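pinned: reference chain
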Amino acid sequence: MQITKNEISPGSAQLQLKLEVNDYKDKYLSELRKQAQKAQMKGFRKGKTPSNIIRKMYGKSILFDVVMDRINDELNEYITKENLELLGQPIPAEDHPENDFDPIHLKDIDFVFDIGYAPDFEVNGLDKTFTLYKVQIEDDMVTEELDNLTSRSGKLEEVENDIQPDDRIKINAEEMEGNEVKENGWATEFSILISTVGDEDLKTQLLTLKKGDSFDFDIDKIEKDKDEKFVRKYLLNMDEGDETEVGNRFRGTITSVSRMIPAEVTVEWLQRMFNDEEVTTEEQAREKILANIQSFYDNQCKEVLFHDIKKALQELNPIELPNEFLKRFMKNEKEGNEVEVQDDEFTKSLNATRWQLIKAKLEKKMDIQVEPDEVVQSIRRKVLNYSANYSFSVDMVDDLTKRLLNDEKQVRDEYVLIAERKFLQAIFEIVDKNVEEITRDEYMKMVAALNENAKG
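pinned: its structure tokens
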């Protein structure tokens, strides 16, 4: 077989392949004989169907498969030999010659494929100094988290005193007509958190009341962001399909007030919350919380750093790509090959391709490798973390780990995650960093701006 490469533009070329009869004839005849041996046609014994009939009935499809298998093998061998880093896959050229795959009169067959490949380049920009932000953890952040822990692990108790913003109230409500309770009107009972009350004036009023007090309200507005279906089902307690017409004005009586009473900070509570026998005082708990919060924001700031590095590398490495080929390839991948590729879609694809080329170049330079045992251990750790809430036995952990390792997609995804972590850590260690302290509010504004830019 002859393969000729003709450059079209930087990063794109045409491969012209000439498949001579002798390149595929023997394989084609062999496949015909195999088909004849298993063919069973009316009027002929099994395996005795004349070859001319086999050729007419099956020859074209057999010839097509044989030729395409040979073409694919030769293409892959050529690409490997020439060390071409393809972008996408070879696609038939627009002026690709027509081949009729005549199963009777064999002849030389020509193919023309367009290919796109990555240009050679060196990654610039790793010598820059990047800003690594560090969020200042204030005492009130630690206090807030400790209060959250005591509240989440507290007990719900009924109270008789004034209502507070985080309380839950139970309401007996009756439909009104004008300024009075409607005779034989709709009656219902429901509970609601004060914090979810949608009417701000009503919320202010409720905070002045207590158990046993009454108030008038609009049931459609008492809980924010709820539609008519929710109101009828959960506030009016109507059965599905009930089409009774009910007004929106109600008079409610508070029948109970429930409040989450925070847990008491004892040695037993501390050790249970932090799963650490050495945490026996509130001060030690605060130190642990401080370390956890700091670790969380340190990791988040690393993500911001990686975002800045990625952006800088893309800007400093404007890799020239074969745009026309890539656009044709994207269109070719779409169902029916008839949907046009939109400009914004194509731009995103080009940016993603450039980043993948930069990343692949760096991974090779850094010798990023993932060993099979790393995948096994990573999946096992995930199973152990998952099983902690379900008291799995060792055998159950082993069994689930084995099943996940037999899932090719699971293993492939885990491999990608591990490689990504290694890549990011290697980048983190290579670049020069200037640490800059910021407040949590400054961090939140920065992240909001990044997210907004990402949407744009």
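why pinned: The chain is about 50% helix and 20% strand. The CA atoms of residues 74 and 163 lie 80 Å apart.
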